[in-house]
# Entry
Amino acid sequence: MTIGIIADLVVTGGTIVTPDTEYKASIAIKDGKILAIGDQDAMPEAKETLDATGLHILPGAIDVHVHFRDPGYPQKEDFASGTAAAAFGGVTTVFDMPNTLPAISDAKSLAEKHAIAGAKAHVDYGLYAVLGEDSLPNIGALIEGGVIGFKCYMGNTFGRIPSPTTGAMLELFEIVAPTGKRISLHAETNSIMERREARLRAMGRTDPLAHLAARPAVVATEAVARAAILSEWTGARIHILHISSAAELRPLAEAKARGVDITGETCPQYLLLSSDDYEEKCGVIRVNPPVRETENQDPIWQALVDGTIDMIATDHAPHSIEEKTREDIWTVDCGFPGVETQMPLMLTEVARRKASLSDYVRWSAEKPAKCWGLYPTKGALMVGSDADLAIVDTNREWTIDDANIQSTAKISPWHGMKATALPIHTIVRGRFAMKDRTLQDNAKGWGRSVHAIQEMPTPDVRNADQTMAAVTAPRKG
# Structure
C-alpha cells in the first residue's frame, strides 16, 4: 500500500485493456490523473472504491468526428445532450465539427462556441474550425483561439458550407502546414455530385437509392487522391473522414507509402450497413458519404485491422424524426446519431470477427490521441495519464432502442440491433460522467477543451510566407 497518499478513487477487480495486452489490476486515481496501477494490496487508501469485477477497463474512446449542432440547431442536439450520449457510449473526448450556425470560421464564433461547450459538456472536447476561402484570413486567430484542427468540406453537406476550389485548397494547405494542425477532410468531389444529383432530379428520382447514385465511390476516390497530392506538396497533415468505399483505400495506402502525413477513419455504418438496407430503413439511412454496396464492407474492415485505416469514429449527426422520414430523399436531412452506440456495436463486431479488445483500444483511443498530439495524456491507461476510463461489460446482451438513447434525436438505423457489450461506467479526468448507467448531476460543465494539451510535431516544411512568395514570384528568363 502506498503510504501517506489518499486517492480520490480506486477501481478494483477489473481487466485492463491496452493496445498490446489485457491484465487484471487495480487503478488508483487522484486529482484527475492515474496515480497507480497494480495489485489491489498495493493501492493507497481511497475516498471511494469501485468494484469492477467481471468488467473490462478501456481507455475512454476519442471520437474525432461528431456534430452536436450547437449553436444554431439545439432542437436537433446541443452540447449537453450530445456529450451525455458520449458518456453513455464510453466516449470521454469528442471533436465537434464547425458546420453550426454560425459556422466556426472566425475568432468570435469560436469563442462563443467554447463558452457553450464549456458550460454544457459532460466529457472533454475539441472544436474544429472551417478551412475555406472565407476563413483563410482568420487561420492564425482561430489557432490562437483554441481549435483542435481544421475541417475542409470538399463536398456539400449539412449547412451548405462552400467547397473551396483546388487552387484555394492548395493555398490553405500551405498556410496551415507550418502550424502542424491537422486538416480533416470531407473528401467527396462536389462538382461530380452536383452534376449527378441534378440529372437524377430531372429524371424524377426521389427514392432512397438515388442518394447513393448521386455520390458513387469515384467522388471519394478522386478527392482522397487529390487531397493526398496537395498534402504531399505542402507538408500539411491531413485526415480523411468517414471512409465509405474500398476504392478509397488504394490512394490512402499509396500516400502513406510515399510518406504523406495522412490518416483515415471509418464509421460503424460503413462496416455494418449496406445498400441492401435502403429498402427497409429508407431516409433514416441517408448520410454523407452514403452507405454503399455490401462488397465494400470486408475491405474496409481489413484496412482497419491492418492499419491502413487508423481509427473508428462516428460522424454522429442527429436530426428530428420528421426530418428523417420525408418521402422525397432529397429533402431528408443527412446523418444520424452514433456516439452512444459505436462502442457496443464495434465490440460486438470485434467478437464476431475475431479481432481483439486491444485492437479496438488502438482504433478508438490510442491512434486518435497520437494523431492529434494528445498522447499519452489522452488515449492511454498509464500512470500520469488523464483518468479517462470506459468500464465495460463485454458479456451484456441487449437491444438498441432509439427511444432510450441520450441524444435529442430519437431516430437511427441502429434501432433494433442486438449488441453484446455495454459501457457501465464512464470516468472523465477522475470524475464519473456516467455511473451504473446513470448520468451524474455534477458532470455537466466538467468537460474541457483538449487543445491546450495538444503537442504538435515540427513539420519539415517551408515557412508559409516563403511558400507563397515562391508561388507568386515572377519567373526569370
The chain has 15 helices and 23 strands. Residues 7 and 30 are 5 Å apart (CA to CA). Residues 458-477 have pLDDT under 50 and may be disordered.
